[in-house]
Design goal:
0% of the residues lie in helices and 47% in strands. It contains no helices and 7 strands.
């Protein structure tokens, strides 16, 4: 994880991740709150696509948005 921040246009949590080892990785994250929905977005947090797991492809930089439970 290279960045954790509040989303620009919502109260969602944004995680930015990258792979520097040249291998695809499935990522497991434990949070202090439940995650209601998980999205993959572009780097400027546009066009969110709902996903069920976090996967970072080899040598990729990926942005994920987490909608946390109230």
């Amino acid at each position: 994880i290279s960045a954790v921040k509040k989303a620009e246009d919502s109260d969602d949590l944004v995680l930015r991740m990258y792979d520097a080892e040249g291998k695809q990785s499935k990522v497991n994250i434990r949070m202090w709150k439940d995650v209601d929905q998980l999205y993959q977005t572009n780097i400027i947090e546009e066009h969110p696509n709902a996903i069920s797991e976090i996967v970072v492809p080899r040598y990729a930089i990926e942005t994920f948005m987490l909608k946390l439970a109230d």
